[in-house]
Amino acid sequence: MNWSAYLLKFSLIATCGVMMMTTSDSDLFEMMDLASNTPKKVATKTVKKADTYVEKIYPLQVVERSLAVPKKGAKAPLKAQKSKTTLPVQQATVSKAADQSISENAVKKVDKMNKIGELLAGNNGDNNTNANCTNCSLAGQVAELKYNQCTDKDNYLEKDLEAKEKSSSYIGALIRSNMSKKPMIKPVCIETAMFLQSSQSGPVVNYKTCNAGVAKNAPARPCVSERYFTLVNNSFEVVSQCMKSYIGEGESALAQKQNIHEVFGMISVESGFHINITSKTGAGGIGQFTSPAINAVNKVISETESYLANHSDVRCQKLAAEFLGEKNLMKTNATCDRVSIKEGNPVTNMIYTYAALKEAKDYFDDNVFNDSKIKEKFALSSNDLAKIKRATMIWSHNTGFAGLKTPLTKLLTTKYAKKKVTNADTFLAELKQYAATYPNKGNSGSKARIKETANYYAKIHQKISLIEEVATENKCLN
User: Fold this and answer.
1) Which of 415, 420, 455, 413 is nearest to 435 (CA)?
2) Rounded Cα gap, residues 78 and 89, in angstroms
3) In the predicted model, is pLDDT for residue 317 greater than 90?
4) Per-residue confidence (pLDDT) for residue 20, from 0 to 100
5) I need a labelling partner for 253 at 20 to 30 A (CA). Which of 25, 148, 177, 476 fits?
């Protein structure tokens, strides 16, 4: 059998493994009163029975794949990472037609694998187990990524993560919990976004350490350990589950899922899902908050708190109880409030991100979409109108509200002065052109800023496409 046949075999096996990770399950957490259950041991500390936090996410079987090319006739071994059970795998058979087809596309596969290697491993100093994999399928290589082996240079978050893991806090429960069988966004996509973020700390992007509330530059991106990744993945899942109807009020279930998909893309662009990242502009954390943005959210955060506190899901009520309230407000002049695990991140920063998006949604409804004259200009289905509203909500995270309103209203009152909007995608492409041609005064200070604001929304879709190609060759949204 030739190398191409082996390539197909491993692609099929790894793809099956990825499919196993997305088996259906409607809930993220299994709610339970820990007082009636056997306590779960974490490292050297036992979680007290009196803890009332969510303690179990439906387990996701994570399979560790050996990607070395087997000898002829041998089966590729699959070894369970978190279970002693060995999963039987039937060796794939390859027809002559399939073998020929694979041979014709071998170069494309190799190019993709090389791109993954460049983006996710060796060339940027990452110490990943598959960095030297040269004969692996695309799906197999991504499935192998998993976690970094931490070094003295990049292990600086591990102490705080370990302390939280042993605590009875919500953050601790999120670290201890397994991943959902069917999360809104596939874990491999969040993992890929984290690896795609530059590993170097420098003048444009800095990673921070916090000691006694004082932020200092870290030498490198934090290692993507199992604790770190689990916290980030589970935090995004639970906050998104709680906030999807908050930013998508009145929209269909499909539209609400698409909102989360684009929030995933936005965070991938802003921070690569890294908790402690800051930019040269002073923005920090998962959602890259600046001081003015924090101040704006603090003025409306009581609405978010009320929404979560009155949610039917106890997980969401606990978010309000532990991360919001006057004593937990983010401070505009405190970098560590935005980036430190001790200050409740990434959960706090994610809640603020959704609160800011809701404020944007309300702004454009009040000032554009609900205007009686403008409202008549849209001849779209409810989901297509939701697509345009989603775009303005996400886009304005970079442009500011007024920064997007200027080109938006210009487009509606000129090109659509005497006609209706009948195609959402066409309209958004035109809005990109108008953002470059008719920028708001606050965004017109330089050609670079004009280009950045005009291209921001398209950049998010480009990032999503890259992650989906690299991570799944399909969609990140379940």
Assistant:
1) 455
2) 7
3) yes
4) 34
5) 177
Hey, what amino acid is at 146? K
Beta strands, E only, 67-129: 78-80
How would residue 258 be classed by pLDDT, with cut points 50, 70 and 90? very high
Is the bond preceding residue 203 a cis peptide, omega within 30 degrees? no
Can you say whether the dihedral through the CA atoms of 147, 153, 154, 158 is positive or negative?
positive
Who's near 422: CB < 8 A, 6+ residues apart?
379, 380
Phi-psi region of 146 (alpha: psi -120 to 50; beta: other; left: phi over 0): left
- Interatomic CA distance for residues 283 and 289, integer angstroms: 5
Between CA 55 and CA 65, with CA 59 as vertex, the angle to 5 degrees is 140
**pLDDT for residue 244 is more than 60:** yes
Q: What residue type is assigned to position 292 of the chain?
A: P
pLDDT of residue 470: 85
> Can you tell me the distance from the alpha carbon of 184 to that of 238, in angstroms, rounded to the nearest whole number?
9
- Within 10 A of 93 (CB to CB), how many other CB atoms are there? 10
pLDDT for residue 72 is more than 80: no
Phi-psi label, residue 238: left if phi above 0, alpha if psi -120 to 50, beta otherwise:
alpha
Distance set, CA 301 to CA 304, 389, 396 (Å): 5, 21, 18
Tell whether the model's pLDDT for residue 84 goes beyond 50.
no
In degrees and rounded to multiples of 5, residue 84 shows phi and psi of: -85, -5
Count other C-beta atoms under 10 Å from residue 200's C-beta: 14
Q: Which two tokens stand for residue 238?
A: 């639970």
Do 28 and 238 meet the contact criterion of CB atoms below 8 Å apart? yes
Output the pLDDT for position 144. 54
Q: Which of 123-137, 175-189, 422-436 has the highest mean pLDDT?
A: 422-436
